[in-house]
Amino acid sequence: MSAPESNGRRAVAGAPLRAAGPTPSPWLSILAKAAAAAGAATLLVMLLGAVVAGGNAALGALLGAALVVLFFAISLLVGHFVGRKNPSGAIGAFIATYVLKVVGFGAALFVIGSPAWLDTTWFFIAAVVAVVVWQGAEVFAFSRVRYQIYADSPKGAPGTAGKDERHAG
């Protein structure tokens, strides 16, 4: 008889289970889950906007949500590429990316302005819904990530003498 392991493989009866270890570069998985959740919410807002206020409302909702998704996706992509080579440097990259995005998107919206056809109410509604749903999905997905907090020293490594005997029960 075998039992499923957390990684989807089956464990053989009587065989010891391996420790799972850390999640390798979780950012793309988090991006996919958050984008799927925000996409589903956006479709609902677009449908509601189209029924209530017409096609321009649906288009405005799509644009508002797309801007939010793009804004957040850039951060997760930066985290993925920087985190693979320098995991501790990912936080600094997130901060720098955030500042650049706020300035860049703010300048773009200021320069481009709002087109006459844009229904700003549905743009705003979809943007807020996308932010809330994205953040919720991102926090949920991130809570499922496994990080190795410390590395176990192999038996017999310098500085480990006697540790096994002290904790043996």
Please specify the SSE layout and strand pairing:
Layout: E1 2-4, E2 10-12, H1 27-53, H2 55-85, H3 90-112, H4 120-143, H5 163-167
Antiparallel strand pairs: 1-2
Question: How would you characterize the overall build of this protein?
Answer:
- Keywords: Membrane, Transmembrane, Transmembrane helix.
- It comes from Arthrobacter mangrovi.
- The protein is mainly alpha-helical.
- It has one domain (about 25-145).
- The chain has helices at about 25-55, 55-85, 90-110, 120-145, 165; strands at about 1-5, 10.
- Strands 1-2 form a two-stranded antiparallel sheet.
- Helix 2 packs antiparallel against helix 3.
- The longest helix has about 30 residues, at about 55-85.
- It starts with a strand and ends with a helix.
- The mean pLDDT is about 85.
